[in-house]
Amino acid sequence: MSRRLTWPRVLLAVAVLVALAAALVTWLNLRDEDALTGDAVAFVATPEQVARGAYLARAGNCAACHTDRGGAEFAGGKGIATPFGTVYASNLTPDAKTGIGNWSAAQFWRALHNGRSADGHLLYPAFPYPNFTEITRTDADALFAFLRSQVPVAQANRAHALRFPYNLQASLAVWRALFFSPGVYEPVVERSQQWNRGAYLVRALGHCAACHSPRNAFGATRDSLELSGGLIPLQNWYAPSLASNAEAGVADWSNADVAALLRTGFTRRGAALGPMAEVVFRSTQYLADGDVAAMTECLKSLPQVPAHAAPTPAIGSEALAHGAALYKDRCASCHGAHGEGGSGPQGIVYAPLDGNRKVLLESPANLIHIVVNGGFPPTTAGNPRPYGMPPFGPSLKDEEIALLATYVRAAWGNAAPPVSALDVLEAR
Amino acid sequence: MKSAPVKSLLCRNAVLIGLTATLSAAMADSPQSIPDTMAQRMLPCSACHGKEGHATQEGFFPRIAGKPAGYLYNQLDNFRTGRRAYPTMTYFVEQMSDEYLREIANYFAALDLPYAPPQTVGAPADEIARGEALVRQGDAAHGIPACTHCHGEAMTGVLPAIPGLLGLPRGYLVEQFGAWRTGQRKALAPDCMARVATMLTPADITAVATWLSSQPVAVGPAAAESIARPLPLACGSVPP
To answer: Is A399 a domain residue?
Structure first.
């Protein structure tokens, strides 16, 4: 057989393979989709659904992305920076032209469950439908009822600013074929009802995995209950592992401490800072006692994924002395001469640094962030007048922040790897 | 060894009482005692605004001590809602309740601290003269009202929400006008200062900033209780 004759066959074979792959991708994208029934007019919400939906919208922290700074609530427009470009959250108010005023409950459910918009286009997973897919239809309808009860705001959705090829629906279809499958929350029969309620909140509505799970090169998270920690893209904050007691796991915490963190943003072990401060401020502080208890039971039972124990090289005594001097000058008046923390009439107000997990995380990103930018824990009913930390970025050089962080990670009972000026430069 | 930390604590942070520091040094393992005060809570602000918010002579950052509480609250809210843009301020206030922002504003408003000597010295006489003329008379030909019309005869502000402008760094003042002109700084509509900023020429702005930052401020320059109404321009952040 001559070579010339094989080319058409090769092309044909390639064409067939491409067609098969396209068919497979299409099928994978459409699987588990219900036929769209009912229209927007036909949907009549009960007051109970609206009230329930308001609670669920907080549990899911919808407003965090769908409300722009200073903008109308749920009217969208906020940019979510991703490694692939910026995704702009959409208008969820019931405006007929620019919001979801003409959506049916079935279309809303399909967006949550299948990641497809009312007009059929595929949604980007910055909208965490890989988690929301497990939201029940009952909860989806309640959320829809609540959003439909809001004041309509005419604000056109802003086009995403994604780079090629991420801006193509075909690329997104391939991504979905590889990394997304619709699902429902399957209760674990060996576990209690409370545990299952907690797991549903953690996996589905709370979408904890969106930050606390590692992402692959394509931005996909692994199993949503693994929660073994992940660097939040472009924010330089590390969402610590919830499955390791060396990071942010709560297996050895009391129920009261877990509840305090979720409800008040503050515990005797330290505060919710950075992205978690926002989660507490907008979402978890409003959770009902029963739901906090349920999440606590689930989080305390997560299978432990041992944190990587980094070797701690010996640190020169000169560097330690320099770091100690900086600590004494800048930190000791609040955190104590020996990292013991500071206490007000109601208990700890400045976290102890001796044995503090935030300080000891292998990634120094959060520690650097906190030293450079300072910050306040969120105001909550349980901590309405928080104490804060000054930003030291303006007054300390990268080298000094590195020496200070290195000292805090090595002083007292602490033993974590040193921090370099380059680490500080990268995390700033 | 125990006396060194005690000493440094006492010297650097007068709000810590001696007994507290002694106890904390004596019992290294238990957390040291922290005062339950707004001064302690607001320590993060002093990194830029100076100790107790009275700012410094050399810096860029504005003095906040003694500003009218309504003005301070409006600014905190402006940072929270994006009408003003400064990343550190936004980061500090974005997860704060209205109640706490009001308490913070009231705390700094109530501080009565001496001012640093004027930042600007030896400015050209003609620039000073132009600046003072704009502040006291405005520029009728261009429809520019006198600053004193709203900010008070003594330029120390008017309760509850018009700020005093003396004792502010020159660079800060110039940058605020720039920010109003480019839309980087906004206030509740109608935004009177944005209008004023567009009426002033760059030379006017530097002249006003030069004059303002060269004025010595007497101790305790309280904001005026009230001012003649109506104001020359409508201001969304000043209650009618």
So the answer is: yes
pLDDT value for A37: 73
- Beta carbons within 10 angstroms of residue A394's beta carbon: 14
CA distances from residue A230 to A85, A212, A417, B71, B155 in whole angstroms, order as listed: 19, 5, 19, 41, 52
A375 touches chain B (CB under 8 A): yes
State pLDDT tens for residues B119-163: 899 999 999 999 999 999 999 999 999 999 999 999 999 999 999
Task: Decide if A69 and B81 are in contact by the 8 Å CB cutoff.
Answer: yes
Nearest to A344 by CA among A334, A359, A329, A356: A334
User: Hey, what amino acid is at A398?
Assistant: D
- Which chain B residues are Cβ-neighbours of A395 within 8 angstroms? 47
Any idea how long chain A is? Answer: 428
CA distance A337 to A341: 9
Q: With contacts defined as CB-CB under 8 Å, which chain A residues touch B94?
A: 69, 278
The C-alpha atoms of residue B58 and residue A16 are separated, in whole angstroms, by 73
Residues of B with CB under 8 A from a CB of A: 5, 8-9, 12-13, 16, 24-25, 28-36, 40-48, 80-83, 88, 90-92, 94-97, 99-100, 103
Q: What total of structural domains would you count in chain A?
A: 3
Domain boundary among A151, A179, A207: A179
Q: Which residue of B has its CA nearest to A387?
A: B41
Tell me A67's DSSP state.
B
Query: Strand, coil or helix: what is B196?
Result: helix
Number of domains in chain B: 2
- The pLDDT of B45-72, averaged and rounded, is 84
Q: What count of other Cβ atoms lies within 10 Å of the Cβ of residue A30?
A: 12
Is residue A2, in this structure, part of any structural domain at all?
A: no
More confident residue, B55 or B197: B197
Residue among B12, B29, B34, B89 with most chain A CBs within 10 A, to mutate: B34
Please name the residues between 331 and 370 in chain A that touch chain B, using a CB distance below 8 Å: 332-334, 336-338, 340-345, 348-350, 352
A409-419 confidence digits (pLDDT tens): 999 999 999 99
pTM of this prediction?
0.90
Chain B contacts in chain A segment 383-402 (CB below 8 A): 384-392, 394-395
A226-283 pLDDT, tens per residue?
899 998 888 889 999 999 999 999 999 999 999 999 999 999 888 999 999 999 999 9
The C-alpha atoms of residue A71 and residue B82 are separated, in whole angstroms, by: 9
> Is residue A330 over pLDDT 60?
yes
Give the closest-approach CA distance of A64 to chain B in angstroms: 11
Q: Which residues of B touch A401 (CB under 8 A)?
A: none
Is B92 part of any domain? Answer: no
A358 and A421 fall within a common domain: yes
- Hey, what are B233's tokens? 């321009």
Q: Check which CATH number belongs to the domain holding A370 and give it.
A: 1.10.760.10
Q: How many CA atoms lie within 13 A of B98 on its CB side?
A: 2
pLDDT tens per residue across span B181-200: 999 999 999 999 999 999 99
